[in-house]
Task: structure prediction
Amino acid sequence: MSTSAQIGVTGLAVMGRNLARNFARNGYTVALHNRTVARTKALAEEFGHEGDFVVATSAEEFVAALERPRRLVIMVKAGDPTDAVIQEFAPLLEPGDMIIDGGNAHFADTRRREHALREQGIHFVGTGVSGGEEGALNGPSIMPGGSKESYESLGPMLEKISAKAKDGSPCVTHVGPDGAGHFVKMVHNGIEYADMQLIGEAYELLRDVAGYSPSQIADIFRTWNTGRLDSYLIEITAEVLSHVDEATGKPFVDVVQDRAEQKGTGRWTVQIALDLGVPVSGIAEAVFARSLSGHAELREASRGLAGPKAEQLGASEAAAFADRVEQALYASKIVSYTQGFHEIAAGSDEYGWDVDLGAIASIWRGGCIIRAAFLDRIRAAYDGRPDLPSLLSDDTFGQEIAEAQDDWREVLVAATRQGVPAPGFAAALAYYDALRAERLPAALTQAQRDFFGAHTYRRTDRDGSFHTLWGGDRSEVSA
Result:
């Protein structure tokens, strides 16, 4: 078989198939490989008119079809299946070749694989790909890690197939070494969890408190999508809420079981944040909300618990309440992104990746699930001040939060009084208030720790660590 393909894709389920088609549509000859040969042949036959494909029926044929340096994209399930594919292909490759993992791998696995393959002279490029099957076909947001050398060869191809922001910029950048790309994709998904939870809470408040129907709420979301909340998730929310189930004639949202599933990246975001000591309470509440939704027996057993039932507002009050919900949603979204970017910065510091936060905001402006108009302003905030400690420290975002906070608080008062759960809104506001507090009750917590465990404490009036001898005269000693 001649070496005619510039890139190859192995693993031709929906994401892999669409990514292969995307490369072919953009003028690249693509080698195809799948464990099931029939799927490989079917792809080439069905979409051969879109570009040039080379069908490989074995690993050896697949590798032989690739020009040097070989670029081999893996699109299989994360974990053991990815390791199995690497073990199959790595012995067939030569120094300078590269394996690109486009799945949702855990960044620690990517770091391990990158280190092992580097010793063989093979570049391993852990690559976050966001945008779902549509993005894979028409242009995703792409977050590649790995060596600078690999990006010099691979980068121009990724830039060509990626989504483009409104200013024409490709939604891809070299994120950083080893696991940086998959780490950033993980946090992207964590923000996505929070974003979806906040939108869900806004919907529930508009329905249970304001009394709007799903179709009316769809219209509200369409209006919001013309302003500062302009985003992919707000757009599709309006579509979902306006959809009517053909079988029952009911709003589609009412025939879907209220149990949200998850694949793990949101959970990883929270777990790694705990390891790094980064507070991502909004993301954590979104993960826990999905978990709680799945405990059907617990929820069934608890439905008789005491508490208020929501009472719907009148028309004029409802309209004013909807405006307040928009403020609460926007402010809470800013907090979620603040927490996500804080975690990326902490991960970058911990692993020496030197991630450019402005560049990350830039490549999230198109293609990905959390793409939103205000990412342009986040990019500008970090570009203007790379050492920005928090998005809330940016003058523009800080001012918007200041203007939103009264309505934000009123929405949470209404939710509490009427018994409508809003954990995402509440966690975001608690985070904001904790940041601006002059002092936190952590002083008491540390004093308690010193009392029962001699864990020491630091004083406000002099340097050093101290311990109080809590028995007897309670004298203080330097630790």
